[in-house]
Automatic annotation (TrEMBL):
This is UPF0178 protein C8E03_103295. Pfam families: DUF188. The lineage of its organism: Bacteria, Bacillati, Bacillota, Clostridia, Lachnospirales. It comes from the Bacteria. It comes from Lachnotalea glycerini. Belongs to the UPF0178 family. Residues 111-127 have a biased composition (Basic residues).
């Protein structure tokens, strides 16, 4: 079991590494060539800047019961389809029960953006300390489910 992170602009890498060290679980950070990552703990995999190159590499490298951390619903859907666990960086857990609704809502938002030059949807809210706490709690919960204590 390992943790695979869609690390481009991921705000919870330090939390992931802290928890992974406690559980003695390997972490792999995936980024494209436009990002530079350094880590004393994690393996870093840098892939070409092509569209979705990071996403496909995460799924290619993932094995059943690995944990994927991503904010991309498409990556989460592919991960679930492969038997992986998937967490959003906010701590929300992607499941087979909620991923279809999330993908549909993303589709509707994209459609609204395309149909109106005046559409200005709200961007993501500013990250709060509670988001980090919720993410850590969710990560620990998944790891406990995998009997890693």
């Amino acid at each position: 079991m390992k943790i695979l992170v869609d690390a481009d602009a991921c705000p919870v890498i330090a939390i992931i590494e802290k928890v992974a060290k406690e559980y003695q679980v390997a972490v792999t950070l995936f980024c494209d060539t436009s990002h530079i990552l350094n880590s004393d703990y994690s393996e870093i995999v840098t892939v070409s800047k092509g569209a979705d190159a990071v996403d496909f590499m995460i799924i290619k490298r993932g094995q059943k019961k690995d944990i994927v951390v991503t904010q991309d619903y498409g990556v989460a859907a592919m991960a679930l389809g492969k038997g992986l666990y998937a967490l959003h960086q906010s701590g929300k857990r992607y499941t087979n029960e909620n991923i279809d609704q999330m993908m549909f809502e993303r589709h509707l938002a994209k459609k609204a953006r395309r149909s109106s030059s005046h559409y200005h949807g709200k961007g993501p809210k500013k990250r709060a300390k509670e988001d980090d706490e919720h993410f850590e709690e969710s990560l620990r919960k998944v790891m406990n489910e995998l009997n890693l204590i």
